[in-house]
Amino acid sequence: MLRRTVSTLLLLLIVNPIFPQNRRNAATDTSGFDHRIYDLGRSNFYLRQPKPSPGLLDTTPRTSPSVSGITGQGQSNLSVFGFDLFSDAQERTDHQSEVLVLPPNYRLGPGDRLGVYLLGTVQKNIDVVVNVEGKILLPPAGVLDVWGLTMDEFKRVLVKELSRYYDNFNVDIMLLQPKNVLVAVVGDVRRPGKYVLSAMNTVLDAVVIAGGPTKGGSIRNIQLIRNGKLYASVDLYQFLMSGHNDYDVFLEAGDRIYVPLAESKVTIRGEVKRQSIFELKPGADERLSDLIELAGGFTDLAYQDKIEVSRLEADGHRRLIYLNYREIAAGDSAQDLVLQNKDHVRVYSKLEQITKRTVSIFGEVRRPGQYRLEDDMHLSDLILKAGNLTRKAYTLEAEIAKVDPGKPTRFVKVSLEKLRDGTDGDSDIVLEEDDQVFIRAIPEWEVGLTVEVQGEVMFPGRYAIVKDSTYLSEILQKVGGFTDDAFLKEAFVLRPSSRPKFDKEFERLKEMRREEMSDLEYQYFVMRQNTQDINRIVVDFEKLVYQNDRSQDIILEDGDIIVVPKAPKVVTVSGRVAKPGGVTYKPGANLAYYLAKAGGASWDAKLSKTKVIKVTGEVLDDEDVKSFQPGDIIWVPRKSDRRFWPIALQTISVMAQLASIFLIIDTAVNR
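RESULT FIELD:
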């Protein structure tokens, strides 16, 4: 019974036509098997093939691979030419039935569905299917053997047979549905296995449907095995280069497509139109000129006099070979090197063979700097490249330094004003290599001098000043007065130009612990840490505003910042206290109150040396302070370190010396 069932299934597999829609349905399956579905009339037969293990075949999404073994020399970003053809293989698989075109040499076989249309004295439409023996039944002609005939050959046979029965008729034949064929795609492809394809598919279609070659697979030696023999070898580069299918082969039932490993690959980079990794065709002995053609030819900047070929030797070292392509183009076949696996070809640029010539322009142009010198480049051209002159450029005279290595520098003076007006053509000199152009600024040119007012004034913002003429009192009149919260005792003027240089010593000490510092270093660190910003200009705003004390009226400079702070409502406690910070001002409160609010003195505080910095800037000892005001600062210093052991050791040393002296004197006296 089992033997009969198997025989029946095999017979049905051979006889019944296979429809491509079943293959599309199988492609949507997400189980661990690839389903190949064969329609058997009312029943379905499933041919299952396990999907390849990731350890054997890479099933990651398709990208154009780069070959690590031959890329080298910065070539890791290059991919193997031709692999992009398979980047959307799955999408093209889903639409195969939409792009089939009947080839002129298509040969009929079992499964082809034909439409025969008779016109003239007799009009008939006949739909026939070629059976497994390659025959059709077409009344009144009877049974006709059409296996292996082209459409034209079949039409001639049909006309001949029907002429025995009809006169004055015409015959048209249409292929309504091509036969399906079962083919195997094996070797180094992404998804090897058996596939049901249309007879109008080619070898390329089969490889695409199988996902394309793996990283090491060949695309230039795809072998079609038919009836157990090598029927054709397909080179996909010919299709990619020409776009014709003349090099492809249509499939037949039982075909086997074998994709071997690529034997040789070479890299080409530089001044060619298509930098890539190319596979060499086995047995073709492809030469340098063939590779240049595959790469699309040279760019306009290609330096053809010296093409570099880096060749991997048997011992693992590389050897450089240089070839003159102009001689190859002239017919010198000896220069046309036969390429080998892992050759690296480099086409250099003409720009790399010439010395970069430059000129420089400095001073009052918008983009000063160095520029490439071009032939017949004039001074006006360089100024144009540099963004033209600024407003403060001194146009009466510019200087050009003619630098000639090994000789004294020559200086040429030109009038930019005449150059701009075009009244003196001699001023627009032709520049030479390494020329340096200097365009000075108009002496004492000053535009837009401003100061900024911040804080508790009616109209804060920027105000224009006149150099060496505008006083602080003038700006204070323009700001519209002070707000109710203005605190003139703490108002100040910042002059950024007087900011000190970066203090490397202070920055170094900030990274150290106290025990790592010497006494002198610690004193300097404390001094710098507690120093007010020394870029402040000392001004008593209360005297200037309320008493009109002209001694406090300073001349402002460009960039000065006038700051009128908001009146404080706290007394600041800093130094060696538990919680340094601001304590809300309380009228009549004494020093003990503020220290208590700050958490009290710390264990290393030296209360006897407490200082109070009044809001006026006066520094007092704590006992000299009669009352506190908002804005006052209380500073509690740290006790100096007491080094008991050094003192004890010195004391013992002195006592030992004194004892020794006493013994010497006593011995001398008693003797």
